[in-house]
Amino acid sequence: MMFASTAAIIHSGAMAERTNCSSYLLEAIGITTVMYPVLGSWTWNENGLLKHIGFIDFAGSTVVHSAGERCSLAGIIILGPYQGRFGANGKAHVIPGHNLGMISIGGFLLWFGWFGFNAGSTLASSTNIGDNVVNTELAGAVGAMLMSLTTKQLALMGNAINGSIGGLVAITASCATMDIPFAILTGMIGGGISILVLCC
User: Fold this and answer.
1) Nearest Cα to 116, choosing from 137, 143, 102?
2) 16, 19, 31, 157: least surrounded by Cβ within 10 Å?
3) What percent of the chain has pLDDT over 90?
């Protein structure tokens, strides 16, 4: 239930402040009762379409994020960009977060919850939990820190938080199967993409 609701939450973030509550509830019902169960059965059912060809999705990351992001893409295509996002010449205006305290608390709570998400997906008490947690931590931290260094930008708190979430998202599906160097590389790529997209 938590994974299905997370797919709907991703969708709500992309369309925040531009849809009313009843529209969002209808969309959330569609995601959690139709789209997510189909993707989940393809991935986790022993006879599922993706499972049959060897697809691995350890913590539901691909299922959760692909469901939420596909719906988000459809929604923002319909809604269009935020007012003031683009100038008359088509150049994008950066719209930074307005409350750094709330951003940092939200980022901390997401990061903290990610440990339960990834470690809890093991569904057993074993030494694998430690590997999952270490890979999760490194991908999130490296995604935030190294991206600022490689782009020679200031280490802004908003970039650090967005980079860490990009790293966390990137590592989730494979946190149980990667060695530490690859977890770090995954965090760099995920964090880097998230920062570069925000800067465009």
Assistant:
1) 137
2) 16
3) 1
